[in-house]
Amino acid sequence: MNSSLPQSTPVARDTTTALRGIAILIVLLSHFLTNFIVSHDSFGHAGNAAVALFFIASGYGNAWSLEKRQAGGHFSLRQLYCDRFFRLYPLYWLALCGIWASTNVVPDVWAFLAIKAPYWFVSAIIQCAVAAPLLYRILRRVGPWRFSLGLFGLLAAATAGAMGLPEDLRAIVFSNTVSYRNIVLGHIGFFGIGLALAFVPLAGPQAGTATAPLRTKALGLLALAGLLPGLVLLGEPKGQLAASLAGLGLAALCTAFTVLLLTGWAQLPFERALVFLGRNSYALYLFEPSYFWAMASLGFNPWTRAGLIWCVLAAPAFLFFCQTAESLAGWLSRRPMFRFEADGKTTPSTR
């Protein structure tokens, strides 16, 4: 069975970008509350669970990117991986320098390669980027429903098999480097959800209209109100089996939330602001720890009331820095000197 993607629309792209904006907003808020305001970690677990939206949105975006390359007639794995390398690694290495400066701990080779990174999300998203072409080819061949059943069947079998490993090996397998939400390669599963959604005609003609009815905005608020406590509940630590089941519940919750937005039944409040955050989410995630460290080194300790005020006042400068960093990373990945055809010749960007 050969499948093709539904017609791409700016609405769908803005929606998935806004999803990343929601995710990074929850992650940043959870880090801020957990580190500087409250002593318990409920918000931190919710932030960890919110990363599922990143994987779904990234999978959706990768499906369109791969389709565009395929339609361009000069698809090249070398070019694809080169683009992804320059899109992900330079900013990550810059963030590593910030960690090095703040801790005086030199990153080892595993951290440098992001195989076992201080930022677990970076390792996970790089694994998704590596697997994306293979998953895309399978998805085009078998269709979204068989793809989804097969993918989650394999991940469920891998997770069940890992449960029977000796305790020391099981701890390694269920680490953030290999699993997500206590599902072996669970981040690949969430990424696969996004890929599959791109092959389902979800976006209706009414989605994202300039004058959306009040009910779509109200439904968007209700959807957010249901998402946030769901992330807290499903993100709480549990036993291995319960955590794996909660991971499936998180997949269902985030998928339903995404579908509700893509179909146009709901519209997010402050969508422009969320899209801005989503476009710069990778840099925001990477440089947030260095931002608070830099503020503390300047004497504006985030643990004090005055320090918190100065951190908030300086936030626009931090946002501008992240936007500039993201733009430079995108520019670098599109340079002709870093782009190749299959025969090794340079070729202009297909983006």
From TrEMBL:
GO terms for molecular function: acyltransferase activity, transferring groups other than amino-acyl groups. The chain crosses the membrane at residues 21-39, 45-64, 85-103, 109-135, 147-165, 185-204, 216-235, 241-262, 282-301, 307-332. It comes from Solidesulfovibrio magneticus (strain ATCC 700980 / DSM 13731 / RS-1). This is Hypothetical membrane protein. Residues 18-320 form the Acyltransferase domain. InterPro entries: Acyl_transf_3_dom, Acyltransferase_3. One of its GO terms (cellular component) is membrane. GO terms for biological process: polysaccharide biosynthetic process. It holds the Pfam family Acyl_transf_3. Keywords: Membrane, Transmembrane, Transmembrane helix.
